[in-house]
User: What shape does this take?
Amino acid sequence: MRLENKVAIVVGAGQTPGETMGNGRATAIRFAQEGATVLLVDRNREAAEETGRMIAAEGGTASVLAADITVEADCKAIADTCVKHYGRIDILHNNVGRSEGDRGTTEMDAEVWDQLFAMNLKGMFMTCKHVLPVMRAQRSGVILNVSSIAFDRLDLRPARGVAALRRDLQDEQGGGEHADPPHRAGERRVRRALQRHPAGADRHADGHRAAGARTQPRARRHPARA
Assistant: This one.
């Protein structure tokens, strides 16, 4: 199993109504099938608990945390809870997002705009903010940020911010212009790591793709596999 003895956080591990399984639930189940212990995070506790039951039915290990990623205290609690229960964080998978429909600039309500950015971009930033110190202390870890590729829709413009956040995280971890000196590892190595681990860069069938950032020891020639 490729994720044996790893601890993964899946944000958005519940399920919204629909005929097919969502990305968050599918990812959580797959991580567990590969041997990871999974912290299932969702604003809807019941939905996350259902995912947990599905994992348990296959012999996997998971626990549930209800959290609202638009609230920074909740984002901090995600990292703190994972470390308290499992001692480490190997993977952070951000899968939360919402859409209010495609509207023109003059028709977009400012309050809806703020809500979209709070959930689709700010929440992703805040979970990364509180998980990164743990991964840096471990000198290893993987962050997978999922966003829409429908950049031409006004309501999905936060996805552009997600792409920028990905680049910024890679810059910090990969030795770019603004990298923190203790964590420089070579941007090319980060990109190669994402290419070797398609889960960090693949486009998903429903029009989403993952934007990954990896933290790794500076002295290692090859990044640790998650």
Remarks:
- The chain has one domain: 7-215.
- Residues 140 and 224 are 7 Å apart (CA to CA).
- The chain has a mean pLDDT of 76.
